[in-house]
Amino acid sequence: MSIASVNASANLLPLIGDVNGDGQVTITDVVKTIYFILGNSSSDFDFAAADVNGDGEITITDVGSIINTVLEKDKVTAIDTIKVIFQDNQVFIYGNFDENYLHASVSGAKVKVKSSGKKPFACFVEGESTNGSLVVDADTTCSLIMNNLQLTSLESAAINFPKKQKVNIELSKGSQNVLCDASSREENDGANACLYSKGTLAFTGKGMLSVSGNYGHGIASSKNISIDGSSIVIADVVKNGIHCDRFTLKKGQVDLRLQNEASKGIKAKEEIVIKDGSIEGEATGGIINNNGDLSYCSLLKSDGSMMVSGGSLTLIQSGDGGRCISVDKDFTITGGSLNLKCFGDGGQYINTENEHDYYTPKCITVDDSLYITEGVVYCTSTGLGGKGIVADKFLAIGVEGEQERPLIRVETKGECIINNEDEDLRFGCPKGIKANDELYIYGGDIAVTTVGMGGEGVECNGDMYILGGTLECNTFDDGINVGHAIEIFGGCVYCNSVDNDGIDSNGSIIISNGIVASINQKKPNESFDSRNAHFYLYGGTIFGIGSRPVEIGETIVPLYNTSNSLSTDGYSSLGLLLKSGKYVYLQKCNEIVFALRNENQERRVFLTITNPNNIENQTYTIAYGDCPLGEYKSLFDGKFIVGGIPFNSFPIIDAQM
């Protein structure tokens, strides 16, 4: 073992472990290091040589490493080490390694470590330079330990691993490390990032690394990147903050700040996996329009799949058309917490087919299928055409039998990109939750709010199935809009639409079980609208208030309708003049099933309920007036109340309330 040969611009320091400076590592060095720990340091003790792991402290770990060096002194070292200290335009290099296969060269403050063997080695880096860089050219596994390194390159990447070896980067506990690269490259070395590796990058250690990508990406790998316990800050990048094939966050923190158009916070070609830890991100970048082919700014972007099983994501996207999370294939959420906000607007453009088209900001957009079985998801979109959750194919929420999880809250505050009083002339409209194929709700606690013109709560272009859980939609436009049919097998469904139907299906509405309350507040719409098909009631309890009775086919259904469009279980409708602040109660036997309060001005409505005469051994009655005494459990902000105390029953009649 010996000190590597370097050119004259480098300064050579003693062997790692040679604490007394006699040119060799012996048991004497072990004893002197132990004495230092005990507080009995000698005058010839070399602190830097004793700090084997480069963490800035002398501990029993360093003693063990020196002992291993003594035991291995007649053999090739198991893991050779090299230490690089930047000091302005100078570089100090020392270490324990075999110079026949591992050596270093220096030009100014630019260091190149080259390995020609296949044995793993460790490289300790610290210090500060405003015009330095580090290239590690090796085919074997390398461990890079950063300890308060501040490195700025004016010509290239700050750190470059040009070979496909695995690189373990350890950030020393409590260390603050900063990397900054040049905005241009004198040579095209393929390193398109501030910290670049052609192989896998694995970050460990409880230190922090701040990266600025002035040329391209912040951190990039041609393979995979994982973070386990470290803190990574991407302050400013031209392209993507982190760029790789697969990204995995096991533990630790990632902080993303994006400013450029179409940039990505984390971009993975194959997969993003979040197991634990946290990601916080803010982006202000918008779209790039390349002759009708749009590229969007996204904080998390996977060209493949994505999975979140734990941890927390807090993402804020302020750019027009921006996305918080964009996934090309399947996205699965089985835990964790997602808090996503989009503040940008949507807009119009001419697409590649030379047609008028619209782009909209989206908190979550998935080109394939989306599965949410656990966790907490909050989505807020405030701009024109903004959307909360969008799946181009299949969307499934919840697990059968689990009523309260996942917890999903979606709110849109914007209006349509093209607005019009005629709903058929509105384009680029806000959506809380949208599935272009089938949508299944097995369970969970879901609430959607839209306040802008054209804002719908849940839109499904295929078939929609509700098997359990609680779904609340307080919306401007339709609460639920379904392209084919909607089937409700259980759970609690509440839809309250200001300007359109409570539940609107272009196919059939089929209710077999559960409690369904649907309200329309404005003429000439309905609580339940299946004008193009049938309305089947096989069980459950429905409660609808609309400006007209239920609409089926091309005709308005009269009171107590028993046409072929209805199942034989049937329902009842009656007209009511409902005063502001008054309640309508549906009572089963002596218990309130739910109560509904008119939050608007006095108006004439049609009340539609499950027909008590067609449900065996069950009697339903209607009560109205002021709220009865007693305590109630409110599921829907006082509009839909479950439970309560018995009260006097009123007959089902046309009454003024």
Q: How would you characterize the overall build of this protein?
A:
By secondary structure, the protein is mainly beta. The chain has a domain of 106 residues: Type 1 dockerin domain (Orthogonal Bundle), CATH 1.10.1330. The chain has a 48-stranded mixed sheet that branches. A 3-stranded antiparallel sheet has the order 53-52-55, with no helix packed on it. Strands 20-21 form a two-stranded antiparallel sheet. A hairpin with a 2-residue loop joins β2 and β3. The termini are far apart. The relative contact order is 0.04.
Can you lay out the helices and strands and say which pair or pack?
Blueprint: E1 10-12, H1 27-37, H2 47-50, H3 60-71, E2 80-87, E3 90-96, E4 102-107, E5 109-115, E6 121-129, E7 132-137, E8 142-152, E9 159-161, E10 167-171, E11 176-180, E12 193-197, E13 201-204, E14 208-213, E15 217-221, E16 224-237, E17 240-258, E18 264-274, E19 278-283, E20 288-290, E21 293-295, E22 298-302, E23 305-308, E24 312-317, E25 323-327, E26 331-342, E27 347-350, E28 356-359, E29 362-366, E30 370-381, E31 387-391, E32 395-397, E33 407-412, E34 431-435, E35 439-441, E36 445-450, E37 456-460, E38 464-466, E39 470-475, E40 480-482, E41 486-488, E42 492-497, E43 503-505, E44 509-511, E45 515-520, E46 528-530, E47 535-537, E48 541-546, E49 551-552, E50 555-556, E51 571-578, E52 583-588, E53 591-597, E54 603-610, E55 620-625, E56 633-634, E57 641-642
Parallel strand pairs: 1-3, 2-6, 5-7, 6-8, 7-9, 8-10, 8-11, 9-12, 10-13, 11-14, 12-15, 13-16, 14-16, 15-17, 16-17, 17-18, 17-19, 18-22, 18-23, 19-24, 22-25, 23-26, 24-26, 25-29, 26-30, 29-31, 30-32, 30-33, 31-34, 32-35, 33-36, 34-37, 35-38, 36-39, 37-40, 38-41, 39-42, 40-43, 41-44, 42-45, ...
Antiparallel strand pairs: 2-3, 4-5, 20-21, 27-28, 48-54, 49-50, 51-54, 52-53, 52-55, 56-57
